[in-house]
Amino acid sequence: MRRLLTLLIAAGAALVGLAPIASAAPDHHCTATGTTYTYVVLYTPGVPRFAAEAELRLDCGALVEYYPEIGVAVATSAAPDFADKLGQFRAYSGRKDVPAATLSSRSLEAALPAVDRSGEQWDMDLIKAKQANKVNEGSRRVLVGVLDSGVDPTHPEFAKSIDPADSAGCVTGKADPSVAAWSPTTIPHGTHVAGTIAAADDGNGVTGIAPGVRLASVKVVSDDGFIFPESAVCGFMWAGRHHFTVTNNSYFVDPGFYFCRNKPGDAAAYEAIRRAVAYSTGRGVLNVAAAGNEAMDIANPDHDTVRKQNPVDRNCAVLPAGLPDVVSVTAVGYNGTKSSYSDWGKVDVTAPGGDGKQVPPAGAGPACPLSTLPGGGYGSMCGTSMASPHAVGVTALLASTHPWASPAQLRGLLRAEATPVACPAATPTCTGPAGNNTYYGHGLVNALAAVQH
């Protein structure tokens, strides 16, 4: 599942189902002549809801949700020319623009027993998380949002950390706080991410970096594995409105790997997500994202690996990792060097994501970080998806020890307390000094440093 920025799944369990959410129909003068798609539509921030709803109905659309703070509407329409009527720099449907491709397959096996497996967590050793846990496991005041495929609330590792009141399903673009809407169904990815951040320190299974903090599950990934602009907007708005401390975003927004702010369609989605991220940042949220698994320089895009016919340049960015307000994280394997698949270029810090080419010695665990899976299970996954929650866990510890820090200050602390990593010798794609280069940014995140200062 490249869009989820994960390469390997090695264990799994059964998931629960979700109920669909209905929306209002457009006015009677409109005739449904095509497939119904969901769109993000831009307005001037502050335009009232009734005005947006009236325009959408006039153009044969139905309002699903409206975010007046940022002037972004989520609408559905079966009219093939809906975006043309509104203007393609104002309206965009990700689903309508999905390339003819299928998701990568994944391997699922029986859930592994809940015995103490901390000895297999080499990733935690690499960033000194086990040492940090002895000093500070994180504060309940810190709320971490997992914007992903849902977090299993029945998993024993999350009995004390999941906060149902701050969790929601955002797949439709409108927040649904019901448990079914934010629980996983077909994809275990979000539960794995959550375990890295805050799995309980209870002597069973695995232990997260900051087991003392609270988690909010915000489901933005559809059952077929896509993350469309309306879902991301909803997720960031929910995070801002609920005053999350930090969010993890181990995905790229579909349907392509890049969005270009100067192209019709792309520009509307880019601006909608940029506004939502900026809103959440302004409400005290630090957003952290995986850089990507395309093994390329995302600071200098020259091709889109998903929408292959989509020309890209410096006006294009991976969303959300490529936005200025977002902390971007690359991956390293067991040896502490860049994972073979990891993107680089636009990077703040690096963290363990695993690599099948960097195999730990016998007894040290799998090459891919071990964490939680739905149904009470445990398994390993590789990817910058796994690196990002390591950075988020460390950020949660920083927020615990620096309770008044702003998002910008937390970002500065995360960078300043990282362990510098030098570029490999004779590697022209890695440029810059050990404390700030294109592969590792300011260095490997350091959990122990986060609780010592």
From TrEMBL:
Classification via InterPro entries: Peptidase_S8/S53_dom (IPR000209), Peptidase_S8/S53_dom_sf (IPR036852), Peptidase_S8_Asp-AS (IPR023827), Peptidase_S8_His-AS (IPR022398), Peptidase_S8_Ser-AS (IPR023828), Peptidase_S8_subtilisin-like (IPR050131), Peptidase_S8_subtilisin-rel (IPR015500)
Gene3D superfamilies in the cross-refs: Peptidase S8/S53 domain
Domain Peptidase S8/S53, residue spans: 140-443
Active site: 148 (charge relay system), 189 (charge relay system), 385 (charge relay system)
Pfam families: Peptidase_S8
Domain of life where this protein originates: Bacteria
Keyword tags: Hydrolase, Protease, Serine protease, Signal
Signal peptide range: 1-24
Family statement: Belongs to the peptidase S8 family.
Protein name: S8 family serine peptidase
Species: Kutzneria chonburiensis
